[in-house]
Amino acid sequence: MKVPFLDLSRIDSELKEELKQKFAALLDKGVFSGGKEVDLFERSIQDKLNSRNAIACANGTDALELALRALQIGPGDEVIVPALTWVSTAEVVRIVGAKPIFWDTDEKGLLRADWVKAISKQTKAVIPVHLYGRMADMESICEAAKSSRIAVIEDAAQAFGTTRNGKAAGTWGDIGCLSFYPTKNLGALGEAGMCLTQDEKIAEKIRVLINHGQVSRDDHVSVGRNSRIDSIQAGFLNLFLGRFDDFQKRRKDLAKVYLEKLGGLPKLGLPEDILADDHNAHLFVVETTKRDELRNFLKEKGIGTAIHYPKIIPDMEPYQSQGDFPNARKLTEQGLSLPLNPWITEGEVNYITDSVIEFFGL
Ligand SMILES: Cc1ncc(COP(=O)(O)O)c(C=O)c1O
To answer: Residues in the active site (predicted)?
Structure first.
């Protein structure tokens, strides 16, 4: 049996047909930028996440950069970033000319609770990341940030659909950033992202920045950029959004099978909380000191896995920074993502769990 980590060509034929029809309709209309699909997408996300503003943009990295720019963060400023995340979180801080200050994560990969110790006079913002789809403790992060008068930019790129006490990921901070990269729980057929904010002034700034600093046709009031979403991607996303709840149920059902089958293996750490609302089951990350051996064993059995991520950011050449970061580092050495997506079957998950059990010799 061969089980790929994620194979998007497995999207079911009914949805594939709807996507083809959407493409054909937009091609016939000749609308490729802006228009009804973009408006509908933004409104639908506003409703789904209960966010006052939802501004679609070209990708999740841009969303983060736009957030920093809207908050006027730049040279001389510091931004606190977890040591373990996708590189974009730190990259954007450097792009705007500010300095990322790396802080360790907790054992699950979320910004460690004592991050406030990293606050200095130069600190302008903190970027908590809802890594693997698990939500950071936003109550305490927002409270601490407020009392220190710094902004919160939520990197919710991996956490679409995650909620904490009924409030959606991305709607807690001053600005929340989403990615609709194809591998995400809500993914486009290409690149797309979004900024969420509950503040009308910030929303207006982001809208202007996305569109060359233009407030109306040929009236440029600031130096912006082009980070508009493609109409076609918005159209595809509207279709995927209609299937989102079904896909989430499928992810959770499969995650439950993993937990049931792998529970009790003494040498394997599991994401025990993955079925809760504050986790969208984006990634199923197990932990073992024999990570590389397990990965090779599964590869020989035809099972694809992934590592999120093999390196902490402060160890990367362009982001070199001193510090121990023991929890983040441990995840880079011991974390392994097993296949979890709406397109794998229960039979495949059983094959994976049997193989993991075989590896541990039980
Ligand atoms: C945590 C995190 N931040 C930011 C991004 C950037 O999103 P994008 O790939 O859409 O630019 C991603 C996704 O790749 C991510 O996982």
So the answer is: 184 (proton acceptor)
Output the CA 205–ligand 1 centroid distance in Å.
22
Length of the chain (residues): 362
Active site residue 146: no
Q: Where are the domains of the chain?
A: 8-103+110-238, 245-359
Predicted confidence (pLDDT) per residue in 192-216, tens digit: 999 999 999 999 999 999 999 999 9
Is 233 near ligand 1, meaning CB less than 6 Å away?
no
Of the residues 68, 86, 233, 285, which should be mutated to test ligand 1's pocket, given the most ligand atoms within 8 Å of the CB?
Answer: 86
| 158 Cβ inside 6 Å of ligand 1 | yes
Q: Which CATH class is domain 8-103+110-238?
A: alpha beta
Instruction: Indicate the CATH number for domain 245-359.
Output: 3.90.1150.10
Which tens digits make up the pLDDT trace of 268-322? 999 999 999 999 999 999 999 999 999 999 999 999 999 999 999 999 999 999 9
Residue 149's nearest CA partner among 121, 175, 128, 115 is: 121
267 phi/psi in degrees, rounded to 5: -105, 15
Given a contact cutoff of 8 angstroms between Cβ atoms, the answer to whether 101 and 123 are in contact is: yes
